[in-house]
Amino acid sequence: MRLFSTVFLVQLILSVYLGYRIGQTFPRKGPWRVFLYTLLGIELLIYFIGWIFMDMFPIRTLGVIMRYCNSFFLLSCLMVLPVLLLNLFRRYLFRGYRIRYAIENDKKIRRISSGFILLSFVIALFGMYFGKKRVTEPVVRTLSLELGESRDVLNREKRELKVALITDLHISESIGLSEVKTMVDLVMSQNPDIILMGGDHIDHFGYFAYTPEIIHLLGEKLQAPYGKYYVLGNHEYRADMEEKIQWITRVGGTLLRDDIVFPADSAFCLIGRDDATNIRRESLSSLTGRAGVRDKAIIVLDHQPVPLDSLEACKVDLALCGHTHAGQIWPFGMLVRLKYAFLAYGMHQQGNSRIYTSSGVGAASPAYRMGTRSEIVIFDLKL
After folding, report:
1. In angstroms, rounded to a whole number, what is the distance separating the alpha carbons of residues 150 and 134?
2. Class of domain 140-382
3. Spatial distance between the Cα atoms of 338 and 327, rounded to a whole number of angstroms
4. Which superkingdom is the protein from (predicted)?
5. Is residue 156 within 8 Å of residue 382, measured between CB atoms?
6. pLDDT at site 116
7. Which residues fall within 8 angstroms of residue 352, CB to CB, at 6 or more apart?
8. Shortest CA distance to 368 belongs to which of 62, 167, 127?
9. Do residues 223 and 190 lie in contact, with contact meaning Cβ atoms separated by under 8 Å?
10. Would you list the domain boundaries of the chain?
11. Taking the chain, what is the end-to-end CA distance rounded to the nearest angstrom?
12. Please, which pLDDT band fits residue 39 given cuts at 50, 70 and 90?
């Protein structure tokens, strides 16, 4: 309920601001202002009804309502910047012109302002169209790495493994059967030896992921010889966590919560960490200090990026993370860069320790990407 209240309040503020400012560009008399206010009012009403009575709607109907509301929310956010710029122009650059040519100038400014708003609206729609494609058409990135170079015990014939990293699927009203099928097909086309699922498998409400079709895809179609390993993300903690944990079992995954396994016939040590949302999770130094861990190349699967200093101190060879979405939507992604700096995306190294932060295969609602791209990452490892 807190999530709904916050988002609804933000949408209300955006709608009131946009309605007031955009309404100023329309003639005082005529249908355009009435049409704008009616449209914004209907959107808020749909948003309110959809969230309050969500348990009463069939899942498909609820999905349509939520997709519409999420898309409108993003469109509102994208329109704020041009409206702010327009207001600055009207207030300062056109000020003297408006005073000098009062009535005639008012009509001209309204025409110019209306044209600018319309152009911004069209650009925003095009951006959203291509932003959706950047989610629904993920790319496959392939990286080749050699791990365990510093361990004398590994001075032997190297073993090759293909590891698939999938993070931030965010199954939701926007990331559904079609997107999951695309992901599964792309992963299986790479013939991975092992699959690592890096958290945030479900966006918020679990029932979009509990359908028989999605369970069949992830449980029967998504397979690898040495198994599928899951960790939790912060979104798993937001609602119905126990049900989501049971869902991981239903799709044939092995959940790691501060657990250590030695997959692929003990080819390496895999440490799966609980999400940082759990402030009582076991420390990385404690996990890597367990018996037998440092005899193998160490791969850490952790939803949120880990500082390189910690990885190097704990002799971790490779950390695989997600969470950041590489920013997902510009310009909001700049906040992600401020928090995580260079760890927000990509491969980075310090000493013998590496970290790869994936942009994720899905997207949090609203499920669009601007300036980023959904991805599946394949690691060709020599161990």
Report:
1. 39
2. alpha beta
3. 10
4. Bacteria
5. no
6. 86
7. 149, 150, 312, 315, 317
8. 127
9. no
10. 2-133, 140-382
11. 47
12. confident
